[in-house]
Write a structure and sequence with these properties.
The protein is built from 14 helices and 17 strands. The protein is α/β, with parallel strands linked by helices and 440 residues long. The protein has an eight-stranded parallel β-barrel, surrounded by six helices. Helix 1 crosses helix 5, helix 7 packs across helix 8 and helix 13 packs parallel to helix 14. It starts with 9 loop residues before the first helix and ends with a helix.
């Protein structure tokens, strides 16, 4: 068991991190495996999942990279980074330390928890993910459009998240070790600017590293959809970063009218859309062919399932017509959630609170229902669940598919894996721990 810091003081911790982050000479990290996990800032108050949960479940000791989602990119005459929810990020004094006590000093909330975890687990690297699907789609396009704009954005992001200047008089040095650039929807016209923005971040991070003696990490999130990654010069972009976080999920969407595997490892001729490259192996082969080194490829693994309702039980529910997205269920799996608003949520609902999605925590309960029919697709390496009462079908990962995917990572000498999102696992972090074991 990891020892905890008695009488934790955030101000002393910040001083400790600042002192120990300045060795005489910068050293790049060893080229070992990556196991990353995304942490959702916006879900803390509803799900109750905090940095303390990562410690309690043992996940913090197994992650190599904790990726915090998201920081905002605000375009304008001088583009800048911004904290999306300052209250959850560093102001919320109701979020307690790992030892259950309030934080001292001016930094509270998730950021205080990050600093605490970093002190407990020196191997853990923390990244702030910038952008994301929920952000301003035009933010990166405008902010990367000129050398001046790119310089301003990189400088602002480094000042805020790496140097830790959160607000006047509020400092958190050592908070983040670098960035995960999540430019969700680059346009064809953004192709050169995408690489140029990464180059600017890399240049400024290296400049900072020469003064601090540290290597700062730069990554970018990249899509599985061929129409989207066609807008990125993958080889050139990969050369600027330490590794890529490449989506390995959402190959099927709940608003589609036919059920399909959402995170299958392999394609199959049985799939009516087999020519659309909707499997992890398709994406891996395309990226390697484009010039992305295997040693920089990390596969995204979902801690949630995709579901539909009004589905025939033929072929276990796979490749069947669907009437609509699956409803949001109570997390105990017994009934649909009566309301779907996080502003006034019904207690006990699945925490994603989005039709067509279910966390692994809820799926664990759905599998225990008397009307549940489980099936595993050995050709595509994925699990399915069919509820006979409501004719509801889900596709998701289980321990068998996780074993197949981690074996694939070793077989193809890929860098590792990451999960979206940590708070979606069950209370024992069953899938997350299985991934960690498979990557060792």
């Amino acid at each position: 068991m990891t020892k905890r810091i008695p009488g934790f003081s955030l101000s002393l911790l910040i001083l400790f991190l600042s002192f120990h982050s300045t060795p005489a000479q910068a050293q790049k990290p060893a080229d070992n495996h990556v196991f990353g996990g995304y942490f959702e800032e916006w879900d803390v108050r509803y799900s109750g999942y905090t940095m303390a949960t990562l410690e309690k479940t043992g996940v913090a000791a197994k992650l190599t990279h904790l990726i915090y989602a998201f920081g905002n990119v605000t375009p304008g005459p001088s583009p800048a980074c911004a904290i999306d929810d300052p209250h959850a990020a560093w102001q919320d004094a109701s979020i307690l330390a790992i030892n259950g006590k309030p934080y001292s000093g001016s930094v509270h909330g998730n950021f205080a928890g990050i600093l605490e975890l970093k002190a407990l687990h020196p191997q853990l690297k923390t990244l702030i993910s910038l952008g994301g699907q929920a952000g301003d789609v035009s933010g990166f396009t405008l902010s990367a459009a000129s050398p001046t704009a790119r310089r301003a954005l990189a400088a602002s992001c480094i000042n805020l998240f790496v140097k830790g200047h959160l607000a006047p008089g509020v400092e958190a040095p050592g908070l983040f070790d670098g960035f995960n650039i999540d430019w969700e929807f680059p346009l064809a016209a953004d192709r050169e600017n995408f690489t140029a923005l990464l180059h600017e971040f890399r240049t400024q991070l290296d400049e900072l590293g020469r003064s601090t003696g540290r290597h700062y990490i730069l990554t970018f999130d990249s899509p599985a959809n061929p129409q989207r990654y066609a807008n990125i010069d993958l080889k050139a972009a990969a050369a600027e970063v330490d590794f890529l976080t490449i989506d390995g999920y959402d190959y099927a969407a709940p608003d589609e009218k036919t059920t399909n595997a959402s995170s299958a490892l392999y394609n199959s001729p049985a799939d009516p859309l087999h020519d659309k490259a909707r499997a992890i192996d398709d994406t891996v082969q395309a990226y390697l062919k484009a010039g992305v080194p295997a040693a920089k490829y990390t596969i995204g693994l979902p801690l949630y399932g995709i579901g539909w309702s009004g589905v025939s039980d033929q072929n276990h529910g796979l490749y069947q017509s669907a009437a609509r997205e699956a409803p949001v269920f109570l997390s105990n799996g017994r009934a649909p959630c009566p309301t779907q608003s996080k502003q006034a949520p019904s207690p006990g609902c699945d925490t994603i609170l989005t039709p067509g999605f279910a966390t692994d925590r809820t799926l664990t309960q759905l599998l225990r229902r008397p009307d549940a029919r489980f099936w595993y697709d050995p050709a595509r390496q994925g699990a399915t669940l069919y509820l006979t009462t409501s004719r509801t079908f889900y596709t998701f990962d289980n321990l068998r598919s996780i074993a197949a995917k981690t074996a694939y990572i070793h077989q193809h000498k890929l860098r590792g894996a990451y999960v979206w999102a940590l708070n979606d696992d069950d209370t024992q972090a069953t899938v997350t721990n299985a991934i960690a074991a498979g990557l060792e």
